[in-house]
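User: Could you go from structure to sequence for me? I need the amino acid at each position, not a summary. Structure tokens:
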């Protein structure tokens, strides 16, 4: 016999599998749920009925699916009204908010330009709160169930504090406590690049238990999925790939050190090498149109532009080769404006891997390219937040037919439902 604890763990796992099936499939049926999860039809049907009763799923009576026997099956899907999630992006010169429903549809969005370098911690939190408020008002939204804040910089492992960012004056800022008090919803504060592997949680585009996402743009940053889980450091967000040292005492980096990978492969570094831009202007993003024109110049054979991209690819390749020596080669998804110049970067990246890894291991690892970093980050933030809500709902309600004692009472999602 299973103990009560074991039975609850099995129940939660089966509900989580069921919710994830609908998250991946969109519309489905009880029978398809059974086939996809390996649950018996009776168990799948019982779980689906519970989720319908709880408002996690909704039923489309107009989309009946013929069954092999008996009555047609109604199509089921995640109910948009069950929860609302705010995805906040804090990046160079801008704060943006997107609010999505439980099915993943965007219901409201706003962005605002901001001189972040001039803000201290409280002012930064006020700016984020104000934009969330404005977005809620615009969408006539009364409450939130979860908030995910993605920021360029190092965050603590508890996902509550922004420790450091090259784009902000603020240091060691507790962002979560104030936001939770204001919006009565749990808050996660995460490094934006560290979140990016979550973009591929349900998409199927990279069907591997381990892979890296490597952002190349205003900076250089990495997200890492290992053994099926997005990596997080013990004390901080970690995976500061762009700030691994490439050449000791080399070019100046935005972080204040010299010789980082980013100081050779970030867009400002490539621009600096090709155009001789003043090294003091490290806090300003190079316009993407300017970078696109620089890439075209390199493709046309301009010597300095070609050399700048060659140098950037070499720095990235050396860094990846060293990483592969530590953790084994993994596929790499290149994200951001720099990824649009992969035709210029890739040969040097692969050569860099070949000469820096043992016997060149990893030089043939698969590369994927996703130039639109805003889209990747938004999808990643929504996937991360929705998965957290799914986990809450998977364990929130006792099975039908069982009397709940005080110890079994479900904890409602913070923010409640109206």
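Assistant: Here is the amino acid at each position, in order:
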């Amino acid at each position: 016999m299973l103990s009560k604890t074991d039975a609850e763990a099995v129940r939660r796992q089966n509900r989580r599998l069921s919710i994830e099936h609908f998250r991946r499939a969109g519309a489905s049926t009880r029978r398809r749920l059974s086939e996809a999860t390996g649950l018996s039809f009776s168990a799948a049907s019982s779980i689906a009925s519970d989720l319908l009763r709880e408002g996690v799923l909704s039923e489309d009576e107009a989309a009946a699916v013929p069954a092999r026997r008996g009555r047609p099956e109604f199509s089921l899907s995640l109910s948009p009204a069950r929860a609302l999630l705010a995805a906040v992006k804090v990046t160079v010169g801008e704060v943006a908010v997107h609010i999505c429903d439980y099915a993943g549809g965007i219901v409201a969005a706003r962005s605002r330009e901001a001189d972040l370098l001039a803000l201290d911690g409280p002012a930064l939190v006020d700016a984020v709160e104000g934009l969330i408020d404005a977005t809620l008002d615009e969408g006539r939204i009364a409450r939130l169930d979860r908030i995910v804040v993605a920021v360029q910089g190092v965050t603590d492992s508890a996902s509550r504090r922004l420790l450091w960012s090259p784009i902000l004056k603020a240091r060691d800022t507790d962002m979560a406590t104030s936001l939770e008090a204001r919006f009565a919803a749990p808050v996660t504060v995460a490094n934006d690049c560290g979140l990016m592997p979550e973009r591929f949680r349900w998409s199927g585009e990279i069907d591997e238990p381990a892979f890296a996402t490597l952002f190349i743009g205003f900076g250089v940053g990495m997200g890492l999925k290992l053994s099926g889980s997005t990596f997080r450091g013990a004390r901080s967000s970690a995976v500061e790939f762009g700030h691994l040292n490439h050449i000791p005492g080399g070019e100046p980096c935005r972080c204040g050190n010299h010789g980082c990978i980013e100081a050779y492969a970030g867009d400002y570094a490539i621009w600096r090498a090709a155009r001789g831009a003043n090294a003091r202007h490290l806090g300003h993003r190079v316009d993407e149109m300017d970078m696109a024109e620089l890439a075209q110049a390199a493709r046309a054979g301009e010597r300095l532009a070609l050399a700048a991209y060659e140098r950037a690819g070499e720095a990235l390749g050396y860094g990846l080769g060293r990483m592969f020596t530590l953790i084994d080669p993994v596929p790499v998804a290149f994200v951001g404006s720099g990824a649009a110049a992969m035709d210029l970067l890739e040969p040097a990246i692969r050569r860099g891997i070949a000469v820096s890894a043992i016997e060149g291991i990893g030089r043939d690892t698969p590369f994927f390219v996703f130039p639109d970093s805003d889209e990747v980050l938004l999808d990643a933030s929504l996937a991360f937040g929705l998965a957290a809500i799914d986990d809450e709902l998977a364990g929130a309600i006792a099975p039908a037919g069982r009397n709940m004692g005080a110890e079994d009472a479900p904890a409602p999602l913070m923010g409640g439902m109206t």
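One structural detail worth keeping in mind: The CA atoms of residues 119 and 169 lie 6 Å apart.
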